[in-house]
Write a structure and sequence with these properties.
This protein is an alpha+beta fold. The protein is built from six helices and six strands, in the order αβααββαββααβ. The strands form two sheets. Strands 1-3-2 form a three-stranded antiparallel β-sheet. A hairpin with a 4-residue loop joins β4 and β5. The longest helix has 14 residues. The relative contact order is 0.17. Bound molecules: iron/sulfur cluster (2 copies). The site of one iron/sulfur cluster has 11 residues, from loops.
């Protein structure tokens, strides 16, 4: 299965469950992603910006966005308004995978949710997502993602271990 076919199947599953992932929990925002979203909310107007700022908590190297019962960027068709603008946060691309701390919170691992939805059924050993996620974690900073998960543990119930995340050395220019 190609990545495009897999994404199509996942999108279909997400529509079937009415975008459940966008309606609960805290969203992890590296600072650069937060700034892009904040600028977009400001462009939408003062009410959108105020709503965005009210939902965000600052944790230094990262921020958390409270989805409450519905992310403010989810439209009435249950589609993400940020996706076509290239502003969708990285963590939203990871679902139904999540990154958790492991080993006394020192290391990271990728796990697949096996109960929240049908989306996980389209993933298997062929899925390119874990490799993309591992690269993404290192691009945004292994320590930043680990700090996020130490702050917001999330629930790893009903998840399947996929792989550990290797901390890749930063290449200096
Ligand atoms: S990843 Fe699963 S729970 Fe989340 S929106 Fe898609 S199908 Fe629903
Ligand atoms: S940013 Fe988009 S994908 Fe992420 S929670 Fe909000 S609506 Fe869903």
């Amino acid at each position: 299965m190609t990545t495009e076919e897999l994404n199509d199947q996942l999108a279909h599953a997400c529509q079937s469950c009415q975008a459940a992932c966008c309606k609960k929990g805290q969203l992890f925002l590296p600072r650069v992603e937060y700034e892009r979203m904040h600028a977009h909310a400001q462009m939408l107007g003062s009410a959108a910006a105020a709503e965005f700022e009210k939902r965000v908590s600052d944790h230094g190297s990262f921020l958390l966005y409270d989805q409450k019962d519905r992310c403010q960027f989810l439209d009435e068709r249950n589609l993400c308004e940020l996706h076509p603008l290239g502003l969708k946060p990285s963590e939203c691309f990871w679902w139904p995978y999540h990154v958790f701390t492991a080993g006394a919170q020192e290391s990271l691992e990728i796990r697949l949710y096996t109960s929240c939805c049908d989306g996980y059924r389209v993933h298997g050993p062929h899925s390119p997502y874990p490799a993309h996620i591992e690269k993404g974690v290192n691009a945004m900073g292994f320590d930043v993602v680990r700090a996020f998960r130490r702050q917001y543990r999330g629930s790893s119930c009903d998840t399947q271990f996929i792989q550990s995340v290797a901390a890749m050395p930063t290449v200096s220019q």
